[in-house]
Amino acid sequence: MLGKTANGLYWMYRYLERAENTSRLIETGQRISLTRSGSGDDEWTSVLQTAGALESYRETHDAVTRDGAIDWLLRALDNPSSVRASVNAARQNGRLVRTALTSEVWEALNAAYMDTKEALARKVGERELPAVLGRIRQSTGLVRGATHGTMLRNDIFDFARIGTFLERGDSTARILDVKYYVLLPSVNAVGSNIDNVQWETILRSVSGRGGYKKAYGDQIVPRDIAQYLILDRRMPRSLYFCASKIKGNLSYLASDYGEKGESQACIDKLVRQFMSHDIEAIFDFGLHEYIQSILGSFGELGMAIERDYRFYE
Amino acid sequence: MENDRVFDEMWGRDDSLRSPYANFHQWFDDEDPARLRAKQREAEEVFRLTGITFNVYGRAEAEERLIPFDIIPRIISGAEWQKLSRGIEQRVIAINAFLHDIYHRQEILKAGRVPREMIARNEAFLPQMMGFDPPGGIYTHITGIDLVRTDAGQFYVLEDNARTPSGVSYMLENRETMLRMFPELFSSNRVRPVSTYPRNLRRSLAACAPAGAGPKPTVAVMTPGIFNSAYFEHSFLADQMGVELVEGNDLRVMDGRVMMRTTRGYKPIDVIYRRIDDDFLDPLNFNPDSALGVPGLMGVYRAGNVTIANAPGTGISDDKAIYSYMPEIVEFYTGEKALLENVPTWRCNEPDSLAYVLDNLKDLVVKEVHGSGGYGMLIGPTATKKEIAEFRKKLMARPGNYIAQPTLSLSTVPIFTKAGLAPRHVDLRPFVLMSPDGIEITPGGLTRVALKKGSLVVNSSQGGGTKDTWVLED
Prior knowledge:
The complex is a heterodimer. By secondary structure, chain A is mainly α.
């Protein structure tokens, strides 16, 4: 496979995942702003921050408003994490690697692109928002489904999966990083209304409310949320889960190609860390510092993969 | 019928149905027009979804457009096709022999059959190719011969495409779409398949690999990139052949070979089916500003370690000034009269011809010698006075840059419109593969159709559409 093709596959799936993550963040923000008691648009500042879009938003807007934030996250082409920009970029990369995709995957991707283009051609009003977000997630979900149903399990699939899980892990880590303080043990705030809202924000951002309840029961405990999102092996968006998926695909690549690179060493180390850590130790180490170090590891891993598999000249 | 002189391929002048269309028309008559209209929309949806688009040049944002597809097939009888394909084969053999001659002993120039300055001052002539033998002796691995028809047995070659002819993906996808929409048509008509093209192309390219390539040569399609107007076709062909689609920045010359950067290091390529122009192949040899090419590629080529298809320098055989000499060229190399006729052509670099052309601009089609895609041409009969006056200035400034031809009354084939069948002008581009193993012509080719009533411009960049082209087993 061409290095360029590996690069295109990796980014196609990263951007698809990003489109989904951003749409989930918008949904969460919208939900919170409808149900919270107080006023103000604080929630949108933190949503923008989680999406990594706060800085660029501030450069072009005076104040953080609900409408402004939603449009920036949904439609702005100047915001590379917006749903529209992400789907566009996924399609562009898909065209680049068209020969590596099955026709079902390509057609699903193309349909997702056309759907999104149509749905986001104009500003999306409050009333249409849930339906539009649902439609976009459905159409990107079809790409994933076609990928699972029709692609050979070879290096093409490996790069697609690595892109997906690196983006996903990165997203979960950023959600935690922005909200880490909510999860810290605090004498005063425990049980208060604000906390409940914040915790819910976190769980909703990763579509993890139902899963959490099943795994940990009705009581929402900050420590359990951290355990759930960082170390839980069953939660498909937890950091550990994402890292172990990447490890799996990188080791398939290593055995296919008959050689290991820097990236295998990187991911082995990261997964070993997750296996040996427990949540108490993480809190002792400092949740924020811990997440920062994980984000750093993901970044290094991404660069090692680029080098090992010759994405660029 | 708009004009009695126009030959319609479905209907005779006495409104009788021509025989190749008998079966089809029976089916068409029994169909509910509403269902057909729905099918037409469905076909468009298929094209849109599969991304069969072309990019439009000259727009700020790369815009992808669909080429309109018409569901009425263009049908050619087996006997007609056999006659045509003999003429095509003869022409392609002559073109290849001409190229070999031009880049070696230049016998045809010595014999005075083609004027020396046609070559010497031609930008498409590549001195780097002099004395060089391309692997397998093949210059034109893929050729597209543009044909038009004016009467029952009367076809003319409108132009030869010996550089990087495009459109074959539409030929293939049009058939796929028809098979999907109207499977029943293919049980009641025996239509010769076209789907073997990608396999034949790969085999044909592999057969032209350099001697040292080994039993399983590595073939790659080389594209200028995602923003090229024919990018869809490049990726389509690579996909269908099961080979890599590469750009210049995936390639590098190492150890005397052309190598592609793969996830497992650099791997040699034996045959490059390039879809970029000569000028951009190798910045060391041609355009130094080209970011699309591979520095040193020509060196590897000249050392006999890679095949470039089509060979660099083939443009010398398909430019519109050389075109006018094709009857002589065919005769010179094959010893036979050309089976396919040329359209009568005035070369504007000849004073008498220029005078005639200037006097008759309103009746003629004037084309740039190096132009393509229907750009930069004048169609006298439909042009305004102002357009003609402006063109006259351009023509007088650089007469050698133009040729002129009479406006042919191109044949028509009906398209499906809201009001039922309506005749529209068409042309035909058959695709020809050449290798040391022989010549292979896909039955049919790409039929382009001018969708506007009366229009003669079939180019997709100018609002033309396409049709599925059937060659029947007689």
